[in-house]
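Revision sheet: structure tokens.
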Amino acid sequence: MAGLSNIYVAEALHRAHILPTVLAGTLVTSKGKPRPALEDLAGAVRQVLADAIRAGGSTLRDFRNTEGGNGYFQHNFAVYDREGVLCATPLCSGTVERIVQSGRLTFFCLLCQEKP
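Predicted:
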């Protein structure tokens, strides 16, 4: 997803239950209409960004907000940088996995994220 950091992409895909390996073109019909999974993803992106803004962003190394302080959204990550940890989704027994896509780390749960 262009324009979003890999942190927020991983979190939004997890909330929408979509694997990061799904091709974007499969999220629309042959006539270009959004499939339900795409609508779920759009809502998840809005939720993740709103939650991150409320938390002041994500401080992993050197991020500082406009007042020089840290963000705290990293304390709410469900999948990002949680490789090997049990999935945070209720009733899911999966473990967070990590892959590299286009040189960027991507985290996901193979059990609760799927191909739409």
